[in-house]
Amino acid sequence: MNLDRYHEQHVDIRRQAEDLRSRILDPSLAADPGAARQSLVSLGARLNIHLAFEDKALYPTVLKHQDPRVQQRTRTYMEEMGGIKATLKAHLSRWISTERVGAEPEAFRKETLALLEALQARLEAEDRDFYPMLAPLAI
Length: 139
Description:
Elements: H1 4-25, H2 34-62, H3 68-94, H4 98-103, H5 105-134
Helix pairs in contact: 1-2, 1-5, 2-3, 3-5
């Protein structure tokens, strides 16, 4: 199975996550929250595109594989990603405005770092476990 597109998306997501991390760790966050908020929105959009590729193309294809272990691991990844997707949606909703980020920079920083850590763990798990399992499959 060719997973090049997914690996490329992971590289892009990591790059955008690092951009966001640098912006939220910047001491000027409270005075100029716009760049951090825009970086969060960009990461969210990129991540939603990646999730749509997985939901519409990858998961349905892999769930048709004859090996029940492959199917079960795929279901597990789908369920876990649903949690991250919901967390991202809630985070974007909570921090909908630049004004709110500027008013509560420490809360924004703390919550965004936690989201980034969860996202990083998920990307690492896919790169280390899920994609290598899928790569040799003839689907």
